[in-house]
Amino acid sequence: MRGSGAYAGKYAAAVAGYRVGPDYLEAHRAFVAVGADEHGGRVLGFYSLVLAPPELDLLFVADEAQGRGIGRLLVAHMQSEARAAGLDRVKVVSHLPAEGFYHRAGAVRIGTVLANPPAVPWDRPEFEFRVSSE
């Protein structure tokens, strides 16, 4: 997460103190995409789904794995997990560079989360995935 190019430079402060450790994993549903090709066994991406209130807390794809559809697969998996949990919507507060990805992945913009300095000194778009009952 901290090695992501999306959080380089001015965005580094947003994840500087963020820790995904045993306590986080115990409290949240986290899923990992692992490489099966030349990246065999390597983590290519992950996401975390919070059930109450429903939120996609984290979604990351390794820089070198972007553009291969892994983010879309993670979103589809998240929607399947949300559906199985009985959720009909999942919100996500987007990192600015990821705004286009969420829009292309089918999320609908529902608002703006105001800056929270010093960690996040910029406003962020808020999206919502609507989960079909299929």
From TrEMBL:
<dbReference type="GO" id="GO:0016747">
    <property type="term" value="F:acyltransferase activity, transferring groups other than amino-acyl groups"/>
</dbReference>
<feature type="domain" description="N-acetyltransferase">
    <location>
        <begin position="23"/>
        <end position="127"/>
    </location>
</feature>
<dbReference type="InterPro" id="IPR053144">
    <property type="entry name" value="Acetyltransferase_Butenolide"/>
</dbReference>
<protein>
    <submittedName>
        <fullName>Acetyltransferase (GNAT) domain-containing protein</fullName>
    </submittedName>
</protein>
<dbReference type="InterPro" id="IPR000182">
    <property type="entry name" value="GNAT_dom"/>
</dbReference>
<dbReference type="InterPro" id="IPR016181">
    <property type="entry name" value="Acyl_CoA_acyltransferase"/>
</dbReference>
<keyword id="KW-0808">Transferase</keyword>
<dbReference type="Pfam" id="PF00583">
    <property type="entry name" value="Acetyltransf_1"/>
</dbReference>
